[in-house]
Amino acid sequence: MKKRVLIIYYSQSGQLTDVVRSIAEPMRPVDDIELVFECLKPTQAYPFPWPFLSFFDLFPETVYDDPRPIEPLSCQTDQPFDLVILAYQVWFLSPAQPMTAFLQSPAAEQLLRGTAVTTVIACRNMWLMAQEKVKQHLTRLGARLIDNVALTDPAHSAATFVSTPLWVLTGKKGPFLNGLIPAAGISAEDISKAARFGQAIAQQLPNRATEDNSPMLQNLGSVSINERLIASETIALRSFRIWGGLLRALGKPGTLLRRIVLVAYVIFLITLILTVVPITAVIKRLLAPLMQKRIAAQRRYFSAPSGESMNMDLNNE
After folding, report:
1. Predicted model pTM
2. Which structural domain, as residue segments, surrounds residue 257?
């Protein structure tokens, strides 16, 4: 009997679509696996590239899990799947609104309850808090998270602080300034190598017991934890909630007063990123010798369930 795999995703720039295709490709020729793709469609399309204020005006609702609605799914939600792959972007340290809208939908409850789930993230570098939110949704829905993949921009954080906003606001990936700022996004090599996750699934899923909760992607380097960013993400998310609550109290997206205060917030956010984030990273590094057990525990927690270790023994490596 064929194992049924549903891949649910939403991509603005096409980068996440490329990641999904890379992961799915090794599963396509496997007779014992049936692949179903579901691209989430917002009822009101999000622009890409983004107008400056429209982009930042999105963050209060994103942080407070109040997304715009999505169109009904095209797949049949009353037929069970053996594995659901949720591929999502990170917006303001939260899942992108279309994925949040799906996780809040009756369709998600039908599809995910009791089902094995693998999450796939494509983002700049901060994804821990977004994944925590997704994990909370999956727990509420009764899903079984068995694996997580997080692909990030390989450039230095200082470079991506410039390149990623330029990509989002102009639609151009770069490189910029004659190569001084590298091209934004996940590298073509990393996207291509993501096929190893699909190959591991293709090798194991056909003979896998339905109730097996063990990871399929261990020892494949599916995630890499930068412990210096853990505190920064926590602080930034708290800031997002404070400012997001204030902006929501001032009116709906697009209202004049909200946008005036939003400008002040953007200035505050840039200051926060340029000061608090590097300071907390330096403090974390200085205290690392005294916090080895705590840091190790954090790495284990955030890298679960697939883990960080890398062992490239698959046939195509």
Report:
1. 0.91
2. 230-296
